[in-house]
Amino acid sequence: MARPTKKGSTAKKARLRSRAVKKSPIQQTIAELRQELAESLQRESAGAAENVRLFKELGERNAELREALEHQTATAEVLGIISRSPTDVQPVLDAIV
Question: Is the pTM of this model over 0.85?
Answer without folding.
Answer: no
